[in-house]
Amino acid sequence: xxxxxxxxxxxxxxxxxxxxxxxxxxxxxxxxxxxxxxxxxxxxxxxxxxxxxxxxxxxxxxxxxxxxxxxxxxxxxxxxxxxxxxxxxxxxxxxxxxxxxxxxxxxxxxxxxxxxxxxxxxxxxxxxxxxxxxxxxxxxxxxxxxxxxxxxxxxxxxxxxxxxxxxxxxxxxxxxxxxxxxxxxxxxxxxxxxxxxxxxxxxxxxxxxxxxxxxxxxxxxxxxxxxxxxxxxxxxxxxxxxxxxxxxxxxxxxxxxxxxxxxxxxxxxxxxxxxxxxxxxxxxxxxxxxxxxxxxxxxxxxxxxxxxxxxxxxxxxxxxxxxxxxxxxxxxxx
Length: 334
Hints:
Helices cover 7% and strands 60% of the residues. The chain has three helices and 17 strands. Strands 2-3-4-5-6-7-8-9-10-11-12-13-14-15-16-17 form a 16-stranded antiparallel barrel. The longest helix is centred in the first third of the chain and has 13 residues, at 3-15. It is globular and about 60 Å long. The termini are far apart.
């Protein structure tokens, strides 16, 4: 696969849609971007010298998959709780806990999961420990699609252990962040974001030393160290956004000493109009000569305070296997 082929496909796809302006949750330690993003402001309660912020999300979904020709019905519940206070020296300290329930997980043990992080923040930056190793990607990534859009194969194959440490510091329009897990794998990134006139420009770069055994989306038999880098560019004008990513990863197999390369790229557009939000994304990749093709279309319609209808159509082609899934859900957030 050539870069020319990728850009031709991505450009034609992006011009076919005029989708959204995504929003960040504004939290200092973004440990769960893919699992939850709240529309409502969090509930706040004073606990002595500290403040407890809480968010709850309930999602009831129906999903159809063309690969298995079956429909499924799932219930997801996510709760986020953050306790924070300020010390006399103006340092902000806090703890964040996120609990998730997924009814269709294979067994009762896997249906419940959680993330936890402890952090401190001041003018010198934010330092955190716990389930925070995904934070560098959250600071530098493309915007995720609306609703139930789920674009696959848009990141490195090698991952980090979920437990580790994280540091981030911002200087004017620049932000630098670094994370390391308990196995010694690391990821670092830097981003730039600045409004100019009615537009907002964003660019980022990151590099990762990972391991395929930390990726739950691939076969456990793949045992390899990985080294990769990716760059992202983003442009926002009012409610319209377009962004893209190009990445390269080297895969060193530990058992056979063979080496593979992984090239991936994606492009997306997003648009918001009143209570309606739309997104369209496409990704192409190549792993050791095998192409991957992915498309994700998403929409969110706000129907009442905290309530929304979320739609998604996701297509995946990998190793001559393909699947198109449609997901619709009713979501309530408070």
